[in-house]
Amino acid sequence: MRIGIPRALYYYRYGALWKTFFSALGCEVILSPQTDRAILSQGSRYAIDESCLSAKIYLGHCAWLLDKCDFIFVPRMADLGRDKEFCLRFRAMPDVVFSTFRDEGVRIVSCDISMHKGKSEAAAFAELGKKLGFKKHQTLTAYLLAKQAEQQQAAAGARKLEAALAGPELKVLICGHAYNIYDRYVGQPVLDAIRNNHAVPIPADWMDRDEAWQAAADLTDTMPWMVNRELTGTAVLLKDRVDGIVLLSSFSCGPDSMTDEILTRRLKNIPILTMTLDGQDATAGMETRIESFIDILHLRKDGTVCL
Amino acid sequence: MEKAYLGVDIGSISTKGVVLDADNNILASDYLWTEGDPIGATKRLAKSLEQQLDAGRHQIVASGTTGSARKLVGAMLGAVVVKNEITAHAVGTTTLYPDVRTIFEIGGQDSKIILIENGVVVDYAMNTLCAAGTGSFLSSQARRLGVKVEEFGEIALKSKNPAAIAARCTVFAESDLVHKAQIGYSKTDIIAGLCRAVVLNYLNNVGKGKKIAGPIVFQGGVSKNAGVRAAFEKETGLPVIVDPNGHLMGAFGVAILARRSGRESPFNADVADMEFVTRASNCGQCANNCERILVYREGVLIDAWGNRCERGAIRVK
Predict the structure, then answer these.
(1) Which residues contact B311 (CB under 8 A, 6 or more apart)?
(2) Which of A19, A186, B1, B152 has a CA-to-CA distance to A69 between 20 and 30 Å?
(3) A150 membership: H or E segment, kind and range
């Protein structure tokens, strides 16, 4: 059985878990390629105008997978508990993908993750295994292996974070969703620009998720979204250990619009640059912003700019 | 022979150039329109600066470029420093006004704020990629009102009762503006309202949460608008300085950076007579199909850029 996984949205958060789970069950995992201009324009064609850039990209990846697998894996992610909600787009994604590609005869496989409805991630994956026709113990073994892979990924992130923070270079926290940061077409050019200006970008997801989630309470009592709470907490925890923060958001992300406001208003004594990505082809505006931002960080730290 | 340093700021609208001596004194300067031809504008600029300079006394040993065509003109002039205009402005302003605490800058497409303590930049913010509340906003509203944007400032100063206009979004501002005109506000009050709206928009967006202290230096094209300057003074309660040479600040800053870089590459005034040609070429090796720009001097490739990855890189021999 060939399971297609779109390389977009929460693939960048749960990819290790998903890939290991399906592989351990003996499924062949077909991963869509890195985002490029063709995938983005495909996605924009299928998506409604009001959709955020990231959801458009997701549909572009689904379109690429249509004729290359038996099922596209599109989980329905609602929440993992109180103040651990996902954006509504994730909750609606199976319906959106199904109705968008109905005429192309799309076949998707999904599972519901919603603690409000009493469905944990473990229960959701048990249900998923059952749907695909695997035995209970097979599914459980696969899920446990998948969790191990996930933990290894987290441990690697923690190591990279410590190494980056210990270095002498200028450090810039990239406060944004992993699916923006790691997307080759939209987020990576921003990180490349930071590196080209002799600074080290630190992706927010290197931070421990639980620790970050808890630290968010310093700035907000009411924010309901889990990942945005983690981003807020990461900024709180690292603000004195980095030289600047780049808020990387896709146009027109609802949760980020609120989070970015909270961070720019409430975090003091740290330069912050807001970068909103909308799939612009020309990178000159972005490069000027990054270059000037890093120059300011150098001026602030050493009193001079890199020449 | 004394050493001199050239700074060139090539924006989308205007091209500015200064030549400094080692003590930051301006030896030559000029300001001309780019007219969509940065190469031609640079040639004219080079000629003009050359004529102003005493060739027997000063020799330009290093050049720097800034502004949106900085890369192209940097390749053309053999610049030792190619820097964005924001940094160039910050360096220029802190050199001329060592006590400055806040720099407001509103250009044609962007706006930013730089906070300085003891000569060191401590904070900075820039607008998002939307040009609301910048010079282009004022220009488009001026067109709508049938008034030259250059006259805006003087007209605004005459108003006693500026109209309340939203400036967050040009589209909303336009409907506000039409509405105010239809209910009987005078053009003077509407124009003053627009200037005030730009200021409120700036302070509530770019300047939000920032502690604004004086002295304040206001620069960028919009700083030439006396109405906006007056509105800034009213809203902040602090004096706002607009340098008469404010438009040269970017060129000034990048000339200083060229000197500070310690690198030297003597400027050849012959660029004015050389042939420079640019050519666009699409890479075509993957779906991104990056658009690359190739720059030739007298038929020889001297620089190329625009590719997103190494595969599309064009090497200059």
Answers:
(1) B283, B285, B286
(2) A186
(3) helix A136-166
**Which residues 6+ apart lie within 8 Å of B110 measured at CB?**
B126, B127, B131, B134
Same domain, B137 and B42: no
Q: Are residues A136 and A172 in the same domain?
A: no
Q: Are residues A106 and A175 in the same domain?
A: no
Residue A158 lies in a domain: no
Buried b or exposed e, range B237-246, using 16+ CB within 10 angstroms: eeebbbbebb
Strand partners, A201: A172
pLDDT tens track for B205-217: 888 778 899 999 9
In a domain, B16, yes or no: yes
Mapped onto helix, strand or coil, the DSSP state of residue A242 is coil
Question: What pLDDT is attached to residue B131?
Answer: 65
Whether residue B77 sits in one domain with residue B58:
yes
CB contacts under 8 A, B 205-234 vs A, are 208-209
Q: Are residues A190 and A144 in the same domain?
A: no
Q: Is the CB of residue B280 less than 8 Å away from at least one CB of chain A?
A: no
Quote the number of domains for chain A: 2
- Taking the Cβ of residue A185 and every Cβ of chain B, the question of whether any pair is shorter than 8 Å is answered with yes
Query: How much is the CA Rg of chain B, to the nearest whole Å?
Result: 22
Residues B17 and B6 sit within 8 Å (Cβ to Cβ)? yes
State pTM to two decimals. Answer: 0.83
Q: Please say whether the beta carbons of A101 and A107 come within 8 A.
A: no
Instruction: Let me know if residue B102 belongs to a domain.
Output: yes
Residue B16 sits in the same domain as residue B140: no
How does the average pLDDT of chain B come out, rounded?
88
The reply to whether A39 touches chain B by the CB within 8 Å rule is yes
Domain of A204, CATH number, reads 3.40.50
CA distance A281 to chain B (A): 9
Are B90 and A293 a contacting pair at CB < 8 A?
no
Contacts B125 to A, Cβ<8 Å: 264, 271-273
Nearest chain A CA: its distance from B126 CA (Å): 7
Q: B29 is in which domain, residue-wise?
A: 2-89+250-273
Give B13 to chain A, closest Cα distance, Å. Answer: 16
Smallest CA–CA distance, residue A90 to chain B, in Å, is 26
Banded pLDDT at A281 (limits 50, 70, 90)? low
Query: What interface predicted TM-score (ipTM) does this complex get?
Result: 0.73
Which among A269, A280, A299 is the nearest to B121, CB-wise?
A299
Domain residues for the domain of A16 are 2-149
Residue B18: left (phi > 0), alpha (psi -120 to 50), or beta?
beta
Evaluate whether residue B317 is within a structural domain. no
Q: Which residue of A has its CA nearest to B109?
A: A285
- Residues B194 and B255 placed together within one structural domain of the fold: no
A-chain residues near B65 (CB < 8 A)? none
